[in-house]
Design brief:
single chain, 305 residues, alpha/beta, Spore Coat Polysaccharide Biosynthesis Protein SpsA, Chain A, 2 domains, seven-stranded mixed sheet, binds guanosine-5'-diphosphate, binds magnesium ion, transmembrane helix, transferase
Length: 305
């Protein structure tokens, strides 16, 4: 393996207990290009990272997403590995992640934490949330990935270059995964170990708030990838509301001959809007598949040149 062409990218925010250990293990394996992108830690994270031999950059803004985007623009290595600085992933498994990238089989390799999830690594809430989110992702994007929120990934530089990342916070992993699918990057998933955080250290992720943001991101990004789902879901809300209201209006008229004129108008409107959204989905679907074909063609041409 050519450790010299690999940059190990580590986002940190208050990880003074774990960061030196993570960096040390990579150093022992011969990796020399380590970049810690720090989110204005208020403990000794930056000092520990520098002592351990990493290059440390303080991110300009806030959030893990902003940090990773900024870091990607600084990296020139051919392969990039990202790993959390909290010691929950094993540096020793980096070979599993790099293997598909080095073999030219993937531009984006994702470490699947459910491969070897150690007891207590995910709280019950986080585990249920992760599984739900992965299920929702597979439903919309129809790609068999088991752990879209993983924090251990390997990329080719070309893979990173092709991604358009906009998210500032913990939605960044979702965006990386979804955009890779949209752009047609070769994605591979390999099983990895996930350990509990060291006792006393705290996650910065708020399961409910960040979970809701992640689900919203998955849904919002479906607008251009699976418009039939995106508009269809909205359309079926309107349609169902109209149908239920219509049943009520009809029953009133049949049983007591009462006419609810405004409600009747509302029923009609809801049903019409529902159908319109649904047709928007069908149109969007056609546009999306044409766009996908065009993109594929453009990319093929560029590669051949
Ligand atoms: N640079 C930077 N790193 C962050 C930020 N928030 C979290 N991190 C780091 O990102 C990694 C994952 O965060 P963590 O809180 O462990 O989330 P979890 O693994 O999803 O529970 C850890 O290494 C954190 O230190 C941030 O705002 N900026
Ligand atoms: Mg963590």
């Amino acid at each position: 393996m050519t450790q010299n062409d690999v940059c190990i990218l580590i986002p940190t925010l208050n990880e003074e207990d774990a960061i030196a250990g993570v960096i040390g293990e990579f150093k022992r394996m011969g990796f020399d290009d380590l970049l810690v992108i720090d989110g204005h830690s208020q403990d000794r994270t930056r000092e520990r990272a520098e002592e351990a031999g990493a290059r440390v950059v303080v991110q300009r803004g806030r959030g893990k997403g902003q940090a990773l985007k900024e870091a990607f623009s600084l990296i020139e290595a051919e392969q990039i590995v990202m790993i959390d600085g909290d010691g929950t992933y094993l540096p020793g498994e980096v070979g599993h992640l790099l293997e598909p990238v080095l073999a030219g089989k993937a531009d984006h390799v994702m470490g699947n934490r459910f491969g070897n999830l150690e007891p207590g690594a995910l709280t019950r809430l986080n585990s249920a949330g992760n599984r739900l989110i992965n299920f929702f992702f597979r439903l919309i994007y129809d790609v068999p990935l088991s752990d879209i929120l993983t924090g251990y990934r390997a990329f080719t530089r070309e893979g990173v270059r092709r991604l358009d990342l906009t998210m500032e916070g913990f939605e960044i992993e979702t965006e990386m995964t979804v955009d890779s699918v949209k752009k047609g990057l070769a994605i591979a998933e390999v099983p990895i170990t996930y350990r509990p955080r060291a006792t006393g250290t705290k996650t910065k992720l708020n399961p409910l708030m960040d979970g809701a943001r992640i689900v919203a991101t998955i849904y919002r990004m479906a607008k251009t990838h699976n418009p039939l789902f995106y508009f269809g879901l909205m359309g079926s809300f309107f349609g169902t509301a109209g149908f239920i209201l219509g049943l009520y209006v009809l029953r009133e008229w049949i049983t007591t001959r009462t006419e609810h004129i405004p409600l009747t108008i509302l029923t009609a409107l809801l049903i019409i809007v529902g159908f319109q959204l649904f047709f928007m989905g069908i149109l969007g679907d056609a546009v999306a598949s044409m766009h996908r074909e065009a993109l594929r063609e453009i990319y093929r041409n560029r590669k051949e040149r």
